[in-house]
Amino acid sequence: MGRHKITALLAALLLTVSCSKEEKLNGKTPLARVYDSYLYYEDLGDLIPRGLSTEDSAAKVKNYINTWAKQQLMVKKAELNLSDEQKNVERQMVEYRNNLLIYKYRDEYISQNLDTVITMQQAREHFNKHQDDFKTNTSLVRAVCVLVSDEAQIVKEMKKLLEYKSDADSLALSEYAKENAQKFNNFNGRWVTLRQLCENLPGIISERNEALKIHGIITFEDELNYLWLVKIRDYIPVGSKMPFDNAREMIDKIIINTRKNQLINDLETNIYNKAKTDGSLEEWNTQSQKTN
């Protein structure tokens, strides 16, 4: 938005501070004053994005002025009511600046030097060494779900195929399901939570269901007299060791975080040792100086 349009929007605001467009203070156009502090038109910069309506632009500028004024008034109130000791924030400001600079440098150093590639072997080694850290907080299952008509022969054959023991039997199940099942889902062989499994079904499977433990078949009847056959192929109860595939994302985050910490530790140690070697750092034994 151009300067002239903003100036037009601010005309009413300028009048409220008894200042015309031509009046200047230190070569600038004032918008508001709090004691000896001024907010100038030139301080607005790119406050107003392109495309805003006149009303929205004026409201945004007015809000900015109000926010600035409240902040200045609070600062003045604080200065009047705090002791000199309480107002001495120079040390905190120095610490804040130092910490901010260190944070930015660390972040830049990590982005340039962090190895983000984690091989399958590295992930499995971490998983095997820290198995107690990877426990399930919900029940997990590997299951196959099929929706079929209640025709006895189809149900009988489908239940038989759901007990597959080999890849060939699994393929036979898939082929039979294509011809005779309304729906088929084996979740690509992945572990899923009981909740995820039940989202595909017309009913709920309780963790107390005995079929989970014996890897049985659970049956649901839907409102159209079709049958859901749910074969539980594997089951992991709450608090058990988590499958590697389910833990992989967590493992990667842990390894990356460990590498970040190691990078920072090495960086700080190297900088420290170099400073001691080249004389940039000197340390004195203050206790021995007091003794002497």
In words, what does this structure look like?
This protein has 292 residues and is an alpha+beta fold. The protein folds into three domains: 3-85, no CATH class; 89-134 and 243-278, no CATH class; 136-236, Chitinase A, domain 3 (Roll). Helices cover 53% and strands 14% of the residues. The protein is built from twelve helices and seven strands. It has helices at 3-9, 11-16, 54-81, 84-87, 90-113, 120-129, 152-162, 167-180, 194-198, 210-214, 244-278, 286-291; strands spanning 30-34, 37-40, 140-149, 181-185, 192-193, 217-221, 226-236. Strands 3, 4, 5, 6 and 7 form a five-stranded antiparallel β-sheet that branches. Strands 1-2 form a two-stranded antiparallel sheet. Strand 6 and strand 7 (226-236) form a beta hairpin. Helix 6 packs across helix 11 (244-278) and helix 7 (152-162) runs antiparallel to helix 8. The longest helix has 35 residues, at 244-278. It is elongated and about 95 Å long. Residues 14-22 have low confidence and may be disordered.
**Spatial gap, N to C terminus:** 71 Å
Name the average pLDDT.
86
Question: Unreliable runs, pLDDT <50, ≥5 residues?
Answer: 14-22
Query: Helical element count?
Result: 12
The CATH level-2 architecture of the largest domain is identified as Roll
Strand content: 5-15%
What about the largest sheet? 5 strands, antiparallel
Total separate domains? 3
Structural category is alpha+beta
The CATH C-level name of the largest domain is Alpha Beta
The CATH topology of the largest domain is: Chitinase A, domain 3
Helix percentage: 40-55%
| Total beta strands | 7
SSE ordering: HHEEHHHHEHHEEHHEEHH
- The geometry reads as elongated
> What is the alpha-carbon Rg in Å?
35 Å
